[in-house]
Amino acid sequence: MKATAVAHPIQGLIKYHGLADPVLRLPFHDSISVCTAPLTSRTTIEFGDFPRDTATIDGRDVTARDMERIRAVVDPIRARASIRASFRMASENDFPSNIGLGASASGFAALATAAAHAVGLRLTPEETSRFARRGAGSATRSVTGGFSKWKMGLTDEDSYAVQLAGEDLQMAMIVALVPAFKQTDDAHREALTSPFFHARIAEMPRLIAEMELAIRKRDIGAICAHAERDTLMLHGITMTGTGEMVLWQPDTLRVILAVRRMREAGIPAFFSIDTGATVYVNTVPNGRTTCDAGSRISASGPSHAGSGARPDSRKTINSEGAPPDAAAGATRQRSRGARAIFKRIYLNEYGYNSGPHQGTRSRPMGPATAIELADGRKYFRARFRIRSSVSSPTMSAYRSRKSMPRP
Q1: What is the pLDDT of residues 166-190, one digit of tens each?
Q2: Which one of 6, 43, 315, 318 has the fewest CB atoms closer than 10 angstroms to its CB?
Q3: Rounded to whole angstroms, how far apart are CA atoms 151 and 9?
Q4: Residue 43: enclosing H or E segment and its boundaries?
Q5: Domains of the chain, first to last
């Protein structure tokens, strides 16, 4: 009994913060995210007559805490399949983890999907997302893929993810990778101690409704603006908890200021930051706009990471002509010191869209999962979702700037 699954990490658009039930990982409110292909987590799990459960992540044995979270996903699946066999698990990420790129989301999404297939369960994405949630809340949305909404629910049965939008709704991203190790669970615990936590909870119904409306209207500019506003609210709570967790680094602020200068110049760029220091710069899927945004961010301070000479920023960011595997390799490079990686990412059913200039695409790889069983058969799921946002001075600036291109 063996299976492999591939899942993509997420960027939180309307992010969840704090857990009402830390065991079942039930949140205080709904949340919305988008999968960031071509980044992937690939997880293989095998059940058999092994002495004990074992697991590795990126070639290293997991910690005791990590094994607890892995078993929190696998044990309910074993119980549903009525098996007691031990397991061996190996997971590999093609991007850095614990720095705000959503590795736990894709890792547990791939684990839940692979484990279910390995024991012979054929679940819907919504059902699979319930199991994935026990490892990481955002993994629910990574299972369903694309633009997804995680319904908070009140019990284990009604807390799951659903898809909101499909591959025809695209947005472009530049990722400013700012290394700064963090533990997301620490931030979730601290959130409840902030004096602003309950104020954000009260705003959530409106934020979610505005983001969903933007998705239905296919207004990429509004989606990006709502995500930026939510970022400021979330990190304001993180910074004002009893632990006073300031996760941003100097390069984080440099990118934020560069994005604001871009908007003043008429470039439709917006920032979004999950728990960590890494910055997503979101914009419309327009080659020239994305290239201009990347060039301006590069000039603001952080540089591309890599060995040897610094690459030309325009070629690196506007990488339509590069093969998908080569483009994905850029995101695996580690930043050095205060340097940052910038990469353009397109979201669609095939994981990575190499763009109109070459007219080629990578092999089909659903943003949620691609399951590969031991005999080589594959099961593809292509799902998408989006959710959450809020009105703010950022939104007002977006609406009032007539020179800003609309998607």
Answers
A1: 777 888 888 888 877 656 667 777 8
A2: 315
A3: 18
A4: strand 41-48
A5: 2-165 (3.30.230.10), 172-360+390-400 (3.30.70.890)
